[in-house]
Write a structure and sequence with these properties.
alpha/beta, Protein-Tyrosine Phosphatase, Chain A
């Protein structure tokens, strides 16, 4: 009898898992409680994969040999409790796809910086001529890529939700950028649960594998000694790393992977700001561990184009800069954005607050922000946090209105910065739509 794979969620991750499962000869059924986008329905129909939308048929789902859960579905939903009570394994699409590729996997996670670091690492490896794919929490799903491509290497951006469903999967090179509070609503508002989830990036590693991590992050340092088997490669901008790893000294990044050390001045980096020094060091260490030539790494760090919606310069209008940082869905990401802008800021913020603690932003807001424009259904938390730090706080309920107000308030040499520090789902489908609406509104000024 064929093994029966049930997939929950009909987005990028679920559809990719369904395609791979069908290709491998499983009986496949996909169920989505919401509406499935037409582009995914067309793909499922093309591959003759049975699916349902707008409901979960429990009697069908509970016949599964194994369930693949999309990362957006919380573990706490009652259906998953029923599935686990039946003893049916629940895994992530990353776990499933990992069974069907022998490619070397460079897996990158962290509360912030993982997308940029993943793109930068892929850029270096691709420029070096490696047969390398980019997948996971970015672009195409890992399973979909494994079904159609035959890569020798994968750079995978992996979220905490994907890590939660990984059990036998192993990263050959694991990269952990940082651990700061995020998605606490999915972790019972317990930071330790969330942090432990991030450390799962090192799960199943052996001594021949590599673990690259930020040596300046106290939460990582606290957790690695007892839980990490792979060889450790820290990177730091605060201290000199003794041994292999990377560090900043005299405005040069130093990448020390034996038998060679190479240096590069930070002025030559395409990505500026402290957070991007971390991103560049992590990508460089991973690349050197794969024996990528130093000159290729240096060239790649100089000519890299940043990801859309991450500190993306949109336009300068009447001397006012407009910057799209819609991908900043948590406080720490917003901190990086505020820290990197050197002009007076009109800050567009707000959305779905995931248990945010705004204390980290207080000094930056007091020193750099001249006005806050709230963009969300409920703005009380932001207003209460910053009412004593900023003279002007305005509430809006559309991106067009927020941008128009920002434009009227802005003076020459100001910056209107969209860096919400919150999720987007109250007014937008996702952070991409939020960023695109911002750019559209700016271009309509």
């Amino acid at each position: 009898m064929k093994k029966r794979i049930i997939i929950l969620g009909g987005g990028e991750s679920g559809t990719g898992a369904a395609i791979l499962a069908k290709q491998k000869g499983f009986e496949v059924f996909l169920s989505d409680f919401g509406k499935i986008k037409n582009k995914y329905k067309n793909v499922l129909s093309h591959f003759e994969i049975e699916f349902e939308e707008g409901k979960h048929s429990n009697e069908v789902i509970l016949t599964a040999s194994e369930v693949i859960k999309s990362p957006g579905i919380p573990d706490s939903v009652p259906l998953l409790t029923k599935i686990r009570e039946r003893g049916i394994p629940v895994i992530s699409e990353i776990e499933f796809a990992g069974r069907y590729t022998s490619a070397k996997k460079i897996c990158i996670t962290g509360s912030n910086g993982k997308t940029t670091t993943s793109l930068l690492t892929w850029h270096i490896l691709n420029k070096a001529g490696l047969n390398v794919g980019l997948a996971g929490n970015i672009g195409q799903s890992f399973a979909w890529s494994v079904a159609k491509d035959n890569f020798d290497y994968y750079v995978l951006e992996i979220s905490s939700f994907q890590l939660d469903g990984m059990f036998d999967f192993k990263a050959d090179i694991a990269v952990l950028m940082n651990i700061t509070p995020d998605h606490l609503d999915r972790y019972n508002y317990d930071f330790n649960q969330y942090a432990d989830s991030k450390i799962r990036i090192t799960r199943n590693q052996q001594k021949d594998d590599a673990f690259i991590y930020c040596g300046d992050d106290p939460e990582i340092i606290k957790r690695i000694d007892s839980k990490v088997e792979g060889k450790q490669y820290p990177f730091s901008i605060q201290k000199k790393i003794i041994g292999e790893g990377a560090f900043l000294h005299n405005k040069e990044i130093n990448i020390n992977i034996q038998p060679n050390l190479f240096k590069m001045t930070i002025e030559k980096l395409a990505l500026q700001g402290k957070h991007n020094i971390y991103n560049s060091m992590a990508a460089s260490v991973a690349s050197r561990l794969l024996d990528i030539r130093k000159d290729i790494i240096k060239e790649s760090l100089s000519d890299f184009q940043n990801v859309e919606h991450r500190l993306e310069f949109v336009a300068r209008i009447h001397g006012v800069d407009f910057i799209n940082d819609s991908k900043a869905t948590n406080v720490n990401s917003a901190w990086y954005a505020l820290e990197s802008v050197q002009k007076p800021i009109i800050w567009i913020a707000g959305g779905i607050d995931k248990g945010n603690d705004y204390t980290l932003l207080m000094k930056l807001v007091k020193d750099k922000v001249k006005a806050i424009i709230c963009l969300g259904v409920k703005n009380n938390n932001i207003i209460n946090a910053f009412k004593d730090k900023v003279d002007t706080i305005i509430e809006t309920d559309s991106m067009a209105e927020a941008v128009e107000i920002g434009s009227h308030m802005g003076q020459k040499e100001d910056t209107v910065l969209l860096s919400p520090a919150c999720a987007s789902f109250d007014l937008f489908e996702n952070f991409e739509e939020r960023g695109n609406k911002f750019k559209e509104a700016v271009n309509n000024l």
